[in-house]
Amino acid sequence: MAQNNMKNIIIVILLMVLVGAGIWVYLREPAYTWPPPNVVKEHGEGGQWVIVDELIISTSGKDIESLIADFNGEIIIDVPQTGTYQVKFPVSSLEELDIIADELRKSGIQVMRAIVMPPPRLNEPQ
């Protein structure tokens, strides 16, 4: 009987240590920073966070591969059933991305910037 009680006490202590460690990991500062290097705050769009090198494209039946080939675009997310794609381009500014977006719009497709939300636990940088 005493052995069982000792086992239970040890199990409870181990669980408390594990739970405490889990809480510490959750509460400590995350290993990443916000925003990531390719995300910026765009004041012209109501202060939304946008991805500098990605666009959301809706093609409605057009060949996405041929449309983005001239700009070295790479499909990173595709929903072919709806003709919607998230495409990454080798650019480093919103100005460069907007030039590509304008050219793609000339092909008659819908193009918009990829918008993201900051993680809920982190505050925006000052």
Textual characterization of the structure:
By secondary structure, the chain is α+β, with helices and mostly antiparallel strands. It has 2 domains: 1-31; 39-116, 2-Layer Sandwich (Alpha-Beta Plaits). The protein has 3 helices and 5 strands, in the order αββαββαβ. Strands 1, 2, 3, 4 and 5 form a 5-stranded antiparallel β-sheet that branches. The longest helix is centred in the first third of the chain and has 26 residues, at 2-27. The protein is elongated, with a radius of gyration of 24 Å. Residues 21-26 have low confidence and may be disordered.
Overall CATH class of the largest domain: Alpha Beta
Proportion of residues in β-strands: 25-35%
Helix content: 25-40%
Order of helices and strands: HEEHEEHE
What general outline do the C-alpha atoms trace? Answer: elongated
**What is the distance, rounded to the nearest whole angstrom, between the alpha carbons of the first and last residues?**
60 Å
Number of helices: 3
CA-based gyration radius:
24 Å
Uncertain segments are 21-26
User: How would a crystallographer describe the biggest sheet?
Assistant: 5 strands, antiparallel
CATH architecture of the largest domain: 2-Layer Sandwich
Number of strand elements: 5
- Under CATH, the homologous superfamily of the largest domain reads Peptidase S8 propeptide/proteinase inhibitor I9
Helix and strand composition category: alpha+beta
Mean pLDDT figure = 77
Kindly give the count of domains: 2
Write the CATH fold name of the largest domain. Alpha-Beta Plaits
